[in-house]
């Protein structure tokens, strides 16, 4: 007789999920600081785990890069509703969320060379990014429009593309302040 749970994937324990999140945060920070070719031992030291732990979770560097990217997309996506619930205004929530998105883009651009490789592991990441973040941005925009704080002719995909384009190359030019230009873009959404 079967228990009904055979063949179903086991859910990770909460401590295992926390450990994986700590490891992914450490890897993301190491990627930003030193690039995706940073030695695994440096990531392990930063995360406070052994090298074997990283390889047990992520057998290849591509697996680790994909996991970091997805982890950061999820963190950005999950922040939208909580910012909307805790901010003084929908426009303020939108601004804080776009600021998180800019932080994400800086890391993503640090991963750009890996993401543009021919590795099949990276093929679905752009679609995943769009699928998870456009709806969150759309929810924030709709709330700000409903509150009469911003103009109504703003499309979430276009806004994310615009912010992304303003962030291109920001990490390589200390004179270029992408965050300031993104602030100006958001200010341009305000209703006069």
Automatic annotation (TrEMBL):
<feature type="DNA-binding region" description="H-T-H motif">
    <location>
        <begin position="39"/>
        <end position="58"/>
    </location>
</feature>
<dbReference type="Pfam" id="PF21597">
    <property type="entry name" value="TetR_C_43"/>
</dbReference>
<keyword id="KW-0238">DNA-binding</keyword>
<protein>
    <submittedName>
        <fullName>TetR/AcrR family transcriptional regulator</fullName>
    </submittedName>
</protein>
<dbReference type="InterPro" id="IPR050109">
    <property type="entry name" value="HTH-type_TetR-like_transc_reg"/>
</dbReference>
<keyword id="KW-0804">Transcription</keyword>
<keyword id="KW-0805">Transcription regulation</keyword>
<dbReference type="InterPro" id="IPR049445">
    <property type="entry name" value="TetR_SbtR-like_C"/>
</dbReference>
<dbReference type="InterPro" id="IPR036271">
    <property type="entry name" value="Tet_transcr_reg_TetR-rel_C_sf"/>
</dbReference>
<dbReference type="InterPro" id="IPR001647">
    <property type="entry name" value="HTH_TetR"/>
</dbReference>
<dbReference type="Pfam" id="PF00440">
    <property type="entry name" value="TetR_N"/>
</dbReference>
<dbReference type="InterPro" id="IPR009057">
    <property type="entry name" value="Homeodomain-like_sf"/>
</dbReference>
<feature type="domain" description="HTH tetR-type">
    <location>
        <begin position="17"/>
        <end position="76"/>
    </location>
</feature>
């Amino acid at each position: 007789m079967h228990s009904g749970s055979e063949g179903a994937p086991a859910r990770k324990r909460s401590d295992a999920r926390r450990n994986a999140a700590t490891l992914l945060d450490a890897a993301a920070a190491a990627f930003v600081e030193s690039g995706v070719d940073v030695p695994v031992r440096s990531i392990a030291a930063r995360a406070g785990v052994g090298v074997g732990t990283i390889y047990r979770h992520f057998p290849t560097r591509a697996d680790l890069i994909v996991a970091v990217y997805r982890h950061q997309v999820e963190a950005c996506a999950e922040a939208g509703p909580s910012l909307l619930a805790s901010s003084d205004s929908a426009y303020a929530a939108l601004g804080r969320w776009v600021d998180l998105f800019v932080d994400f883009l800086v890391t993503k651009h640090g991963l750009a060379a890996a993401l543009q490789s021919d590795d099949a592991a990276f093929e679905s990441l752009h679609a995943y990014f769009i699928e998870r973040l456009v709806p969150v941005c759309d929810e924030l925009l709709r709330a700000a429009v409903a509150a009469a704080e911003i103009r109504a002719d703003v499309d979430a995909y276009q806004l994310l593309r615009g912010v992304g384009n303003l962030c291109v190359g920001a990490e390589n030019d200390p004179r270029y302040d992408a965050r300031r230009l993104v602030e100006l873009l958001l200010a341009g959404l305000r209703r006069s």
